[in-house]
Amino acid sequence: MAASSYAMQSILANPLIRISSGSRVNQFGVPALHMRRNVGLRVRSMAKEEQPSEPAIPVTPPPSVEPKPQPVSAPSPKVSTKFSDVLAFSGPAPERINGRLAMIGFVAAMAVEVAIGQGVLEQISNGGIPWFLGTSVVLTLASLIPLFQGVSVESKSKGFMSSDAELWNGRFAMLGLIALAFTEYVKGSTLV
């Protein structure tokens, strides 16, 4: 506010600016200002005349600062490949293998139920045991081979397809299989 007041006072006090008597007033209540043309106004350059050049002082570059070496990321900790560590209760294999089997089992059970109309218990009793055992052996071996080679599941986990997502999907599939079998048992017929 003070700056605008100062600017307005300097405009009104300037002798080169005059307010005409019949001028109109703008929206702020300030009369329109007209500037007088001063024909005798000259502009002079304030630049210095060329002087003899002085010897240049050599400029030494600043001492070079060597970049600090970036620390090399520590290698990921080595995963134990001992049989007892891989298949321990809190090891990487048991829940993952059970979850993978449950995911395949749930999808297969629902597909057979929709296609043929057999419930989970009927599928197992009508020749489903060899299929279950064969699938279990193949998936268990496929899951254990990388773990025995020292590859962790977290190292292959990126973005949307993370190792945690696989664990949660496996847990939901296990619950789904139990719920499907229990519902069919209580109901006495297939779910679909």
How would you sum up this structure, described in words?
The chain is mainly alpha-helical. It has a domain at 83-187. The chain has 5 helices and 2 strands. It has helices spanning 2-13, 83-86, 94-115, 120-148, 163-187; strands at residues 17-19, 33-35. It starts with a helix and ends in a 5-residue tail after the last helix. One of its GO terms (cellular component) is chloroplast. Its main location: membrane. The chain crosses the membrane at residues 101-121, 127-148. This is Early light-induced protein.
The gist of it:
With 192 residues, the chain is mostly helical. The chain contains five helices and two strands, in the order H-E-E-H-H-H-H.
Provide key terms for this protein.
Early light-induced protein; membrane; two-stranded antiparallel ribbon; 5 helices
Beta-strand content estimate: under 5%
SSE succession: HEEHHHH
Uncertain runs: none
Separation, N- and C-terminal Cα atoms:
78 Å
Could you say which overall geometry the principal axes of the C-alpha atoms support? elongated
Portion of residues within helices:
40-55%
Number of H/I helices? 5
Largest sheet: 2 strands, antiparallel
CA radius of gyration: 43 Å
Spatial ordering of strands, largest sheet: 1-2
Describe the protein's topology.
Elements: H1 2-13, E1 17-19, E2 33-35, H2 83-86, H3 94-115, H4 120-148, H5 163-187
Antiparallel strand pairs: 1-2
Helix pairs in contact: 3-4, 3-5
